[in-house]
Batch of 3 targets.
Target 1
Amino acid sequence: MITASGGGHTGYAVALAQRLVGRAEMLFLVPEGDRWSESKVGRFGRVVFTTKARGPRDPLWRAVPGLLRAGWQSLRRVPRSYDVFVSSGSNHSVPPALAARLKGLRVVNIESSVRFTRPSMSARVLKPFSHLTVLQWPEQEEILPGGVVVGPLYEEPEYEPRDEGYILVTGGTYGHKQLFDLVDRLGLENVVLQTGRVDPKPYRERHPEWRVFDFDPDFARWIAGASMVVSHLGKTVIDAALTYRKPVVIAPNPEWRLTAGWRDAEILAEKLNAVLLKELEPGALEEAVEEAKHRRPPVYEDGARRLAEMLLEGA
C-alpha cells in the first residue's frame, strides 16, 4: 500500500511504483477529489480515497475534524492483506499509516526531498510508529536520526528529453500566484504556464501566445520539452533536474505554511546546481533565468530503485 497524497507526495508514489510494477501488487490511497493523483497512480494498481485534512495554506485548527474523519475511513479502508504500508508524506498519510500499524503491516515513512533543517510534521509524527524511515539526502540524518538514506526519489522518464524552446513555469498543485504575476510582467513570449488551483483565465487572455492550463495528467511531456523549468520548492524541480536533466530556477512560495524554509531552498538549489530566486522581482527573475541557462544538474543514485529493492527484500 502506498499513499499518493497529492503534488510531490504523489510523485514519490509514482517513482516507487515505476520500480515495483510487475513485481508487487499495489494499492494506492489518494485524497478525495484528487483526480490528478488518481490518474498518475491508477495505471499501477487499485485506488481508494480518504480525507486530506489540511492544505499548505490552512491553519492547524482546520485539520482536526478532517483527521477524525480520515481516521475512521482508514480503519475501514486499510486492509490487512498487504505486507507493507508506505507513507509518501503529508497529513493525508498519517491516519492510514497508524491504521496500517494497528493491523500489523510494516510501516515505511518517506521524508520529503526538500527538508534539510527540520523534519516535516508527518515524518516526525510517524517516526515512532515506523519500521523504516526513508531519507533522501545524508543531511537528513541530523533531523531524523536512525533513518536510512536511499538517495533522491525521482520519476523515470516517460519521454526523451528535448528542447522545444519554451520556459515551463509551474507552481504545483496549489499554484504560485506571485510567481505567475511576476512572469506575466516580463513580456516573455515562449512560456508554458501550469497554474494549478490558480485561475488560468487571466494569463491566457493576456498572453494568447502562451500555452496556459491548470492541470495536465501528462505533465511530464511539458518538462521533457522545456528549455528550462521555473517552479516552487517542491518535487517538480527534482524531476526536472534529475529525470529530464533540465536547468532549474527555484522560486519558494511565501504563502505556504507547511513547506520547508529558506535555508532548505538554498541547500536544495546547491544539490541540484539550480538557481534560487531570492526576490520576487522582475529583474531578479530575469537574472536567474539567464544564469540557469549555463547550469547543468548533477547525477545521483536512483533512490526509488534502491527503496523498491529494500521493500521487496523485506527491509
Target 2
Amino acid sequence: MQTEAEAFLQRIRAYPDDDAPRLIYADWLEEQGAVGNPEWGPERAYLIRVQIALARLHDEVEPDEPNATPSARAERERARTKLHGRLLVAERDLLDSHREDWTIPFRGLATGLEFRRGFVEEVKVSVLQWIRHAHELFVAGPVRHVALLDLDRNLPLAFQCPYLNRLAALTVYASHKGQPLARAVADSPHLAGLKRLYLGRNRFEDNSAEHLATSTNLANLEELDLTDNELGETGARALAASSHLGNVRYLELRNNRLGPTGAEAVAGSERLTSLHRLGLAGNEIGVARLHTISRAHDLLRVPILDLSNNNLNAAGLHVILTRASPMNESGVVRLQELDLGQNDQLGNEGARVLAGCPHLAGLRVLRLRGCQIGDDGARALAESQYLNHLTTLDLAFNPLGDTGCRPFLKTQLRSLRHLIVPNGVTQGLRRHLEMRNLRPRE
C-alpha cells in the first residue's frame, strides 16, 4: 500500500523541476513533526525551503535601475549578501546534522551525493552500478545529475540505459575514451532531454567535436563543457556550424587548441544563436595569426567572454577590440563581462587599450588578474570615459599600490562597486575606498 509520504515523493519524482510539490511536501513534513522517521520532521522541511530560497537567489536577475544611487545599490547588495550568508549557514548546519540519515536510501548505489532544493539531485555512480541499479537510484530520489565513473568496457551499455532520459545533466570526466565516447553520447536516443553535458578531459579531437555537433539527440542542450581536450580549429568550426546546438547558452572550451581562427568561428557563429557565455581560456589565441584574421571583433558578440591565459598582448587586444569593424551594426557588440586574467603581456599598455575603447561602453565586469598592470595602467582605467557601466573591476595580483588605486577615489566610473585590489594596497586606502562604496577585497 502506498504511504502518504510516498505519494508526495512520487509527485516530486514526476515533476523534478517544479518547486511546488517540494514545498507542499515540506508543509506536510512540518505538520507530521518528529515521529521517529529521519525522513520526516521540521528539519527536513527547513532544508527544502532553505535550498529552494538559495536556488532562487542564485537565479534572480539583478534589476536594472539606472537612476539608483551608488549607496542604494550598495545597500541592496549588502542585504542580498547577508541573506545569502544566513541561508548558507542554515544549509550547512542542517546537512552536518542530518546528512547521514537523509542519504540512507542511496547507500550502496552511489557516492558524491549533493542536495539541491531539499533532495539528493547529483550523484556519482560507476557504470556497472548504473547499468544494474539505475531503477533503484531514481526510486531513492529525484536525481537530475549523474557523473558516470569507470566506463572501461561498459561504454556502449551505459548509453543504452533508458533512465538517461530522466537526467537534466550528465558528466563523464577524464575517461580518456576519445572518439568512442563522443560517438556513444551523440548516438544515444535517451539524451534528448538533456540540458547540461560536461565532457572534460576525455581526449576529444576534432572528429569527436564533429560527432557531437551533428547529433540530433543533443538539440536541447543549454550547457556544453569540453574543457581540457584536444580540439583544434576544425573542431571549433564543426561546433560553430552545428544546426543542433542553437539552444546552447554556455559553451566552455577552456584548455583546448582552437587558436584565434577557431575562437573567432565559434564567437561569430550564426548557428549558435543563444550563446551567452563562451569560455576560451588557454586556447593559444594570442599568437601572431591573430593579427591576420579579419573578424577578430566577432568575439565581442558574446555577452560573457573568458579570454584568460591566452598570451594576449596589448597589440592583440587592440585587434580584437577595434579591427576593421562594422561596429555600428545592430547586435555586433554585446559584451558585458570580460576575463583577461593571466595574460601577463598586457601590462599598462593593455590597460590603456581597454580604457580607450568606446566599444566597451556596455561592459559591467572586467577581470584583469595577473596582467602585470602597474600604477599607470590602473590610473588609465580609473580615468576612462568609456567604462561607465562597469560594476566590478578585478586588479588582483598586479604590481600596483596606493598610487595606482588612489584615482578610484575620484573616478568617474559611477557604477563601480567592486574593486578587487592587490596585496600592495594599504589598509588606509582600502578604508577610504570602502567609504566610497567600492568594497575593496583581495
Target 3
Amino acid sequence: MTTKEKLLGLFEENKGKYLSGETIAGMLSVSRTAVWKAVKSLQTEGYQIDGVRNRGYRLAEDTDILSLAGIGKYLKPICGNLRIHMTRKTGSTNEEVRIKASEGEPEGYVLIAECQTNGKGRVGRTFFSPAETGIYMSLLLRPGRYSLPQASGLTTMAAAACCEAIENVSDENAAIKWVNDIYVRGKKVSGILTEASLGLEEGCLDYAVLGIGINVYPPAKGFPPELKDTAGFVFETAAQNGKNRLAAGFLNAFMTYYQSEDPASYVESYRAKSFVLGKEIRVIQGKSERKAVALDIDKDCRLIVKYEDGTLQRLSSGEIQVKCWKNQREINYSRSGS
C-alpha cells in the first residue's frame, strides 16, 4: 500500500478531525515531506483536504469520493474474501476483470472505477459512465458447477442486492424492470451485465464477470440527449459517504445471497421489487415485438407472460418495454444505459 493510500485510510478513519503533519508522519512511519506530497496528490485527485497552520490536515466531512478505506468501513464479514481494487478511470471494468479471469485470477477479485470510457451495456450498447457521480464495479465469480442458464441467476441476484443497497442507504424505493434494470423515482439508475465463459469439456461455467453501474448523483453536465428522459440517480444532493456506503451495501447484499445455502434465497426479494407484474408490455425478440401481459416471475426468475392470443411463455432472457402514465405523459422504460 502506498503512502497516499495509507494517508487516505487515516483520513477516512478521522474524517473531519485535524491531524498534524508530524502526527501523520509518525503514524505512517514516513517523513513530513512524504506526507505533504501525498496530501497534494490527493487534493489534485479531487479530495477535499483542508490544511490549517498549527492544526494540520483533515478530510472534509462531506467528502464523497470512492476509496478502499471508505468502502471497507461498511463491509460485513461475509465480504472478507473479496480483494477490492480501485481505479479512477478505466475503459471497462468488465473487460479488465475478464482479462484477470483468463489469466487465472481466483474468485473474489473486484474492480471499482469512478469513470469508464467504454462502459459495456447489454446487447452491444455502451453504458454512460461519467466521472465522480457514479459507481462502476465488476466482480469475478467462479461458482462451481453452474450451467450457462444458471449464470442468468447471478444477474437477477445482483438486481435484488442493488435494490436492497439503495433502500438501506437512502430514503428511496427501488424497483426492478425485468431483467436487470433498477429504477428510482421512475427512472433508471442502475444496469447489470453478466458475462460468462463456458468450459467446453464439462459444459459448466469457467467463470462469470458480474458488472454493475449505479448513477449515484446527477452528472455535472447532465445526461446525453438520448438518456435525459429515462436515466436517473439515487441521491439528488450530496450524501455523506454515499458512494462508499452504496458500494459496500451492494457487496454485502450480493455476497449474502451468493453464499446462501439456498441458491434461490433472493427470488422473493426480486419478485417483490418487480414493477412489471400485471402490466401490459411488449416482448422484443430479435426484430419482432409482441404485446403481452406480465403475469409472474418464477423460481428461476423467468418472466411469465401471456400474449394476446392466450399463449403463455416463460422468458429467460430478452428485452421488454413497459408503458405507464405519469403526468399524462407516456414513459417508455425500455431504454438501457444510464
